[in-house]
Give the backbone structure.
Amino acid sequence: MKINVDKLKKSYHQRTVLDLPSAVFGRHSIEGLIGPNGAGKSTLMGLLTRRIPATEGLINFEIGDSKHNLMPLQSHQVAQLGLLKTNQRIQGFDKLSIRNSLRLAATPSSDETLAGLFDKNQQSEEIENEIDTYLTKFSFDEPDGFARSAGEKKLLDILRCLITKPKLLLMDEPTAGLPEDVTQLVMNEISDQVKQTNIRVVIVEHDLELIWSFCEYVHFLSDGEMLFQGTPEDVKANRVVAEKYLGL
Ligand SMILES: Nc1ncnc2c1ncn2[C@@H]1O[C@H](COP(=O)(O)OP(=O)(O)OP(=O)(O)O)[C@@H](O)[C@H]1O
Ligand SMILES: [Mg+2]
């Protein structure tokens, strides 16, 4: 599974904020995407999930032998293919309780076939069990109330994505604003799912300790350009990364 990017460009008012002649994401189980503020990391994730329209270029999502051109698709169609994104800034969550948000996310939208109807009871029991497991593992103040704190909203955003069982999950600063113990829980959950399923994850983070300890491969973006890619060891030792980002 991987995303291939070809001559991908994003400009706002003639100013180019991202320019990737070619890049591949998702070849490793957990990859990092790092770079200074304004490098274009969130923009890139928005482009890959088609939430932000590209100025030019191609994006292909390969799942096994099938290749999907994402350019004609809208973001909900990209999500149906199994490519999802968690958000750096969280909005919403004011209309549904935590439990109902997870139920809504977990319910397949296209199960209205006859077989789907027969399966429904069993399916909803499985979903309810899964939701209970998440709600026990990640202790929310009031699982049947709203997510109130920024941390709870962020956590719910992540769990909503995980419960849909994406094939490739892009996470934009997943642990910024989460308490240390919840960060650990989230990262352990991601590691477990990576081991147990075929899910691939790309993480944007400024917390470099997290990147070095969880990622097999790291992409370094600066001023809209991919300046270096490699293993955490390679990236740590790279002079350009050190100068432009690590402040060494
Ligand atoms: N809607 C927009 N209109 C104009 N410029 C934008 C828009 N969105 C992003 N930019 C610009 O694009 C550049 C890349 O922004 P982006 O949010 O992708 O950076 P980032 O790497 O995610 O930064 P951070 O680490 O601070 O989250 C920045 O210079 C930003 O100001
Ligand atoms: Mg960002």
